[in-house]
UniProtKB/TrEMBL annotation:
GO biological-process terms attached to the record: cell wall organization; peptidoglycan biosynthetic process; regulation of cell shape
UniProtKB keywords: Cell shape, Cell wall biogenesis/degradation, Peptidoglycan synthesis, Transferase
Domain L,D-TPase catalytic: 44-174
Pathway per the UniProt entry: Cell wall biogenesis; peptidoglycan biosynthesis
Protein name, UniProt field: Murein L,D-transpeptidase
């Protein structure tokens, strides 16, 4: 195979990958719901990736969750690593749950839902802070801020799922997509051991296509088989 043919094939593969990724961002929510044969109100799962400034929404189809839609995060504050204390301007990382009482349709940031920080793990490690949210208005001091248009879709999916008897919406927040090569790049960081525990939850979902059940025992995240 000639160099020109290799380059052409590489470009074709790159284009296919780009088109595959971009459909989750540029297709409308209605188009994506139709494409995966799902409806608003079906159970959902959210993953957030700091480095990529990306919020993914997955929706349950039969016994698995399928990739529904991606939303670019408009703003978040701080750097890679968990939130430790009130006022550090860090956006949290970890495993969180959104219950109906955490929805705020009257937020001054258009619409918002509270992530539930600090969770049991955070409290066990004496981390503190309050009002850590996903919201609109595209401004952040420790939250994950979206445009108003995007938060309307995300909030609508969360609210509909909770009203349709999903007990809580899991929100798993990672510093980055936790592939082996990326983990190796960050192996010298102070949060590497913490991130390796988060990776257990990431890997479970990647393999099983359902969110794991996450508990906190003796101050550590415990990842176990999904429960409905």
């Amino acid at each position: 195979m000639s160099l020109e043919e290799v380059m052409r094939l590489s470009q074709e593969v790159a284009m296919r990958e780009y088109l595959e990724r971009s459909k989750y961002i540029y297709s409308t929510l209605e188009e994506r719901l139709k494409a995966v044969d799902a409806k608003q109100g079906d159970p959902i799962f959210i993953r957030i990736f700091k480095k990529e400034s990306l919020l993914e929404v997955w929706i349950r189809k039969d016994e698995k969750y399928v990739h529904l839609k991606d939303y670019t995060i408009c703003a978040y504050s701080g750097r890679l690593g968990p939130k430790l204390k009130e006022g550090d301007r860090q956006a949290p990382e970890g495993f969180y749950r959104v219950y109906p009482k955490q929805l705020n349709p009257h937020s001054k940031f258009h619409l918002a839902f509270n992530l539930g920080y600090p969770n049991a793990y955070d409290r066990a490690h004496k981390r503190n802070g309050s009002y850590l949210m996903v919201h609109g208005n595209c401004v952040s001091v420790g939250c994950y801020a979206m445009t108003d248009e995007k938060i309307e879709e995300i909030y609508g999916l969360v609210e509909s799922a909770l009203k349709n008897e999903q007990k809580y919406v899991p929100v798993h927040i990672f510093p980055f997509k936790m592939e082996e090569e990326t983990m190796a790049e960050y192996s010298h960081y102070r949060w590497y051991d913490f991130w390796m525990k988060l990776k257990e939850g990431y890997d479970y979902f990647e393999a099983e296509e359902v969110p794991p059940y996450v508990d906190v025992i003796n101050g550590e995240y415990i990842i176990s088989e999904a429960r409905e």
